[in-house]
Amino acid sequence: xxxxxxxxxxxxxxxxxxxxxxxxxxxxxxxxxxxxxxxxxxxxxxxxxxxxxxxxxxxxxxxxxxxxxxxxxxxxxxxxxxxxxxxxxxxxxxxxxxxxxxxxxxxxxxxxxxxxxxxxxxxxxxxxxxxxxxxxxxxxxxxxxxxxxxxxxxxxxxxxxxxxxxxxxx
Length: 170
Fold this sequence. Notes:
Keywords: Membrane, Transmembrane, Transmembrane helix. By secondary structure, the chain is mainly α. 79% of the residues lie in helices and 0% in strands.
């Protein structure tokens, strides 16, 4: 599914915007985020690492304050509607099923949750869980940003060193 989504985005935007804009936009999308964007940037699109990293970090950070500050009131409003209540309940249940690490270790739990690139983790889910747990913005935002930087180092290594090295070797 993720692979299809990435190729769909690339196909839809290629020729309309630059490779750099594609990388930036992918880094803002839930599920894909910085992790998917760096995998696309190096091995697939050939964007230089010195360009890709800042684009991915900034793109991944942009949604975070909105999620931390606005998701709770938005979800509250959506729960008041017949149409959106099942969707919000599903999203909350899915996010809160991953809350243990964050709830137990708070700041550092959130850093690790966002920073270790595993399925179902990342800035979007980490921010959602932090907001639902009532974590203060001044604590949650820096934790998410540090986690994004940690994920950047890991994904840089995978995308540009491991996969880039394999690509360069043929």
